[in-house]
Amino acid sequence: MLATVTDWLWSYVLISALLLVGLRLTWDARFVQLRLFKEMFRGLSGGFSGTDKGLSSFQALVVSVAGRVGGGNIAGVAVAITLGGPGALFWMWLIALIGMATSLFECALAQLYKQSDGSETYRGGPAYFMRFGLGWSVMSVIYSALLLVTIGFGFNAVQTYSVTNSIESAFAIPTWQSGLVLTAVMAAILFGGIRRLAAVSQLIVPIMVAGYFVLAIGILIANITEVPAALGVIFKSAFGLEQVVGGGVATAIMQGARRGLFSNEAGLGTVPNVAATADVTHPIQQGLVQSLSVFIDTIILCTCTALIILLSSAYQPDAVNPQGVVLTQLAVAEQLGGWGESLVSIFLVLFATTTIAYNCYLGENSIAYFANRPSWAVPAFRISVLMMIAWASVQDLGTVFSFSDLTMALLAITNMLALWYLAPIGMKLLKDFEAQLKGGSAPVFKRETLPEEKIDEGSWS
Asked: What total of structural domains would you count in the chain?
């Protein structure tokens, strides 16, 4: 029944919502994700040091990349290809390109409506722009609850499952043992807050992303003559008549959208929680930076993983293929030898560690939204997550992914609804940003730009 409900939501509701909202934002903004692509890099100001008011734009980027780049790039791509065929990658690309615009505006709105909580940083995200931008007090509570369940438990279960099974395949270490070690490591990170997460992320994320990218590019260069054929398989599987006869196109679309959204999170409303913590001069500036992270995650890293799999004999279209991350590891091992499997496992451990920490921060942010929360709520959440990590290490693939897919669908639908109604505000922000760019000045947002909006004076005074 869980799988039936999840499939129905993804097949008829969520895919339509993602495309409708994403295409509207893309069209109204005149394909801003392409027009201002260079501007995304210019927004990486502030370097490795934040301010007294929050994280730097770069720190917010690496934290969000820490969350986006994880099991979805290594295990999720393999799942998409196994269940939906190579054509699923094409639909991952499409969702990502549209999602770049979605992520831009949801993160910009999170910046606009962020609130100072009296501590060392800001709080923000969909729950905040629902409440302060739309006056949706009930919906904001629903979203916060869904965020807590989806990210804090569902996504962390997927990351844990991917890591422990990868380690078992590469090093013959039982999943329960690696699960206990992962639980201990995460305990040390979770009780350090957003600034410790930022410190860990800005050290690990650039290294792990660059390392995995170099590994993938090396394999692709070694097989450069076969890459065009692999790309051809992707397009053929996405549109080929033989796929239509077997119902493959529908499956490819659904799996590509699921794994694409799980990987880059554009439209879920998760990353805006981190984007709101950045201390920037204009909301669109941080929106552009976060749009770049979608590009890095899906267009670059997921494509690299997919091509590695398709260039190997580990994947056989008409056979029963290895599940999840094991397929990726076997594909790399075929190219590099036995140590390649171990290397992928190491990368996945790094990816998943930062992702789980990031997910936990989002869960804590959803708890922080509730004004009357008891003092023990956050510590209890952290302990619950640690228990979930230990539990998920010994579960099966179907249970873990079905649970996360259902809660992810509900979370995205709620966020999409708010983005639809706040789209005009997002367009005003973009117009103001571009007008200042054309005037030759660095864009600086002023509250009087949107006099009718309820904007926290402490954030944009």
From this structure: 1
